[in-house]
Amino acid sequence: MSDTWIFPDWPAPRRVHTAVTTREGPGISQPPFGRFNLGLRSGDDGHAVRANRSALRQSLNLPAEPRWLRQVHGTVVAELGPLPSPEEPEADAAVSRVPGTALAILTADCLPVLICAEDGSAIGAAHAGWRGLAAGVLEETVEQMQRSPAGLMAWLGPCIGAASYEVGEEVRKAFLDHDPAAADAFVATRPGHWFCDLSLLARQRLQAAGIAHIHGGGFDTRTDARFYSYRREGARSGRFASLIWLAES
After folding, report:
1. Burial level of 84, CB count in 10 A (0-12/13-18/19+)?
2. 24-36: burial string, b at 16+ Cβ within 10 Å, e else
3. DSSP code at position 16
4. Alpha-carbon span 85 to 227, nearest angstrom
């Protein structure tokens, strides 16, 4: 782990590669965006973001330009190959079974989840803010991977930590209506408000979907200065990327 990159520590097969960027990467964005903002819709200069994305591909020796998404806090899952389309797909998750494909999720407090088949035949990536998580974006991603959940593994990336994430009753209700066990992820703070553990909620959802091997977690983007955080920085926050790519056999 470093100030520039995070390489997930999980037992993924050799042809599956993963990385997470930080704001300290080899970019040219100006304050308040740090150096390595990768979000085109964050208010940063578009030229700088595109230059940062080019530096990302070169620095990690990616097999192709990452397949960026237009994320909208929904549950749509795009099935993608390595060749970009004229427009970024409007989706909050992506899957691929095509070698040379790099999937990317942009976040600044929401939870990025990377998934792969244990035999290296498929990859997936999901953007799990509370709305998408409650609506079932992880379950949709697992289904679209077209593999037995028992043969999948997941890694939970950097997101806002439970001690930094206070939410209202509507958020808690959205999860408890789906599964009463979600109560374990909420701690009361003041009347009508709760600390919310996004990573625990994701673990519960993935386990219920049949995935037993879940790794990662333990980050807090609001208190860890390496990451962009909407709660810490407001609307002028940049975005960091969590990437998974499928190398040739």
Report:
1. middle
2. bbebebeeebbbb
3. E
4. 28
5-146+154-160+218-246: in CATH 3.60.140.10: yes
Element (H, E) at 169: helix 169-176
Omega prior to 31 cis, within 30 of 0: no
- Between strands 77-79 and 93-96, the pairing is parallel
pLDDT digits (tens, 9 = 90+) for 35-67: 999 999 999 999 999 999 999 999 999 999 999
pLDDT of residue 1: 45
| Residue 140: HSE in the Cβ half-sphere, 13 Å Cα cutoff | 20
CA distance 159 to 111: 5
Q: Is the pTM of this model over 0.90?
A: yes
Instruction: Indicate the domain borders of the chain.
Output: 5-146+154-160+218-246
pLDDT digits (tens, 9 = 90+) for 156-185: 999 999 999 999 999 999 999 999 999 999
Helix, strand, coil percentages (3-state) for the chain, rounded to 5, are 25, 25, 50
Q: Cα 231 to chain center, whole Å?
A: 17
